[in-house]
Amino acid sequence: MRRWGILAGVSFLILTGPTCSLTGEAADVLMYGSITDYGVVQRAEPSPSSSVLGTFDEANSYRELLVTGQTTAPDGGLWYRVESDIFGEGWMDEKSVDVAAPETALQRLDLEVRFACGITPALAEKKLGAPKRVDKASFDIPEYETVVETMTATYDGCELVFWDGILQSAAVTGETLSFGALTVGGDVQDLRGLLGEPTEKKGREWFFADEGMELLVTLDKAGKRIESFRSAMIMYE
User: Using one digit for the tens of pLDDT, what is the confidence trace for 147-189?
Assistant: First the structure.
């Protein structure tokens, strides 16, 4: 399972104005994926005779692999529909990819957002269309002797930030992106049913923590409805 470090991850902020469309194809399943070995391939279709989109090897090490569906081939073999940061959308057979289902509600949330928004700029554009504006920058992390290249893609009511080509944060309207009980305007009691009691409460802010992830939920002034929420993932550690 992917874990990087430095708290940054996927964040959700409540914006105003027009919304970006996140009404694309729903995932059949959502799981974390990892290749079983170097040399395995990603194909265009769930068939060993389908065209090869690319080969996973040490020279093009991937950082992100989502499993978004599965199907059984005529020969009985299982194939997974995947999204990778280097080859985009495609298929891999069960011998080429290990899968891990989300173990907690926060992990499920992480997967749903990354699937909805796109884990790379190319996938984001395919799902959301071309951004209205793109800004690029960079910053140093001295303790890791690395420079992070950032890209911010701005849509009407939606802003995505990528670190080194991987989705790092997403800011969207509550009406556009929701996860059942975790939605703007949602009832606090439903949120408790989804995530349980928060790790910490500070005024109107509820804090939930999970391995490598954090979620901050801000309630309305009455303390009964969700006003906004922000989820973060460790990017470097």
Answer: 999 999 988 767 788 999 998 887 765 555 566 667 778 899 9
Q: How far is CA 142 from CA 22, 98, 137, 147, 163, in A?
A: 37, 34, 17, 8, 16
Closest CA to 104 of 2, 20, 213: 213
Whole-prediction pTM: 0.80
The DSSP bridge pattern shows strands 31-35 and 97-100 to be: antiparallel
| Of 183, 157, 152, 167, the residue nearest 232 (C-alpha) | 167
Type of residue found at 217: V
Length of the chain: 237
Q: Domains in the chain, ordered, with CATH? A: 5-25+104-236 (no CATH), 31-100 (2.30.30.40)
CA distance 9 to 138: 16
Q: At 193, is the secondary structure helix, strand, or coil? A: helix
